[in-house]
Amino acid sequence: MEQLRTISCGIESLDKLLGGFRTPSTILIAGTAGVGKTILSLQMLSEAARGGEKTLYIPITTEKEHKLKMYHSTLDFFDGSFQVHAINRQLSEKDPLTTLIDIGNVIESVKPDRLVIDPITPLGFGFVEQERRRFFYTLDSILQERDMLTLLVGELVREELHRSVVSHLSDGIIYLSRADTDARADHHLEFIKMRGIDPGKRSEITACKYIYDITSSGFTVYPRLKPEEDFRLDDSRVEAGIPGLDGMLGGGMIKYSSTLVAGRPGTGKKIFGLQFIHQGLQNGEPGLIITFEDSPHQLLMDAKRMGWDLMPYMETGLLRFICTNPGNMYPAEHSIRIKNNIEKTGAIRVFFEGINSLEMSIPDHLKLRSYLHSLTSYLKSKNITSLFTTDTTSCDCPGDEMIDFAYLMDSVVVLHSSTVNSRMYMNVTKSRGTKHKNAVKEYSITEEGIKLRTDTLLI
Ligand SMILES: Nc1ncnc2c1ncn2[C@@H]1O[C@H](COP(=O)(O)OP(=O)(O)OP(=O)(O)O)[C@@H](O)[C@H]1O
Ligand SMILES: [Mg+2]
User: Fold this and answer.
1) Is the pLDDT of residue 437 over 80?
2) pLDDT in the model for residue 269
3) S-S: 319 plus which of 3, 9, 144, 313, CB 3.0-4.6 Å?
4) For residue 265, is the peptide bond before it cis, meaning its omega torsion is within 30 degrees of 0?
5) How remote is the CA of residue 72 from the centroid of ligand 1, in Å?
């Protein structure tokens, strides 16, 4: 009996999610106009051709072959390495049976390992439903005669998928769609069906929508950021780097914890974060700074003003930055960049500057919460000590309920400046897993950073 084999999809990010395609099989790549169906299938074909597979592309089109080539040559991966057999779209709609014979003949002569028919759905357009079904069953039996992977492109909207005969004949369905918001368009990829893969993986991948992106280097699907599997939490303590604060936190920050530093503009949140990172660097701990508003250069200058020269750490790779314009930020892409960076550098301290800037890129509060939740869970599962800062606006000394996302963090430190005497105060309003001191302490920003005064002001 013929065995199912696993082969690369031809797209690294899809392989990571799926573990590859099973072959022989038929996969339907469906979606509306311009969502990237052709690019996805051509990239899968090009990579397979490069890997030594015999590949065939059957475009069903009104366009001339040289125009198609010109258009596709804007894509880096396109090198014309696959064989092309174009079929005129008008003819195929008028005379589908001749098209069927044509497809059968070209498959017979090329004997491909991987085939793309783009698009398949206009075939049999003029048929009544029953004839159309019969037509597709015949096509299916032609395809099944060969041990190959067939990628069928379908011009279908989601609602049509469930009643389309092509969906029923396919072993897998990848559905691409576009969601327009005020700010930008997001592209989503869904696995509607995927036969032959591990049931656990199948239920995981069919349960969510993945963001994807098309650039001239092709198609990238962003996986969801997930906590590490089988992790063990390390609850040892690390120095915060702010003299006097470790005592307030019951002996330092818990290694795996996340801390939110909240305060109005000018209360020293950025210095707080830099001081925390600098402390780690002095201990030889790799650090990562994630920023939206400031460039690495700006932050290096801010640190230098406090007497901390971070440049040598940057040069040796102990300190890294991820700097993103919040207007162009895709949450799924951003979180995967953070993950890749951490995995590459082994960062054990992360400073995430200004989570309020994220509201611009993720205006939907639920999505923003989900983004931060998956990020903090991932960092925790890696035993990374993380520090996030956020701006508060409404009052001098807000309670946690007034601070967005305080509930997602293990500890919350509030910085506030008094309107009466323009002095600055700090208190730890929450510290999970620690008997913290519920005290308000005065602090000052000196030339060596933030320092707490030893006298407790309020209890
Ligand atoms: N070189 C390129 N760099 C970046 N993006 C590109 C490039 N070429 C095309 N695109 C993007 O890809 C999309 C079109 O992709 P594609 O032609 O694969 O869509 P499609 O789903 O096959 O559409 P149709 O149903 O009209 O055939 C466009 O939205 C375009 O913005
Ligand atoms: Mg197309």
Assistant:
1) no
2) 95
3) 313
4) no
5) 9
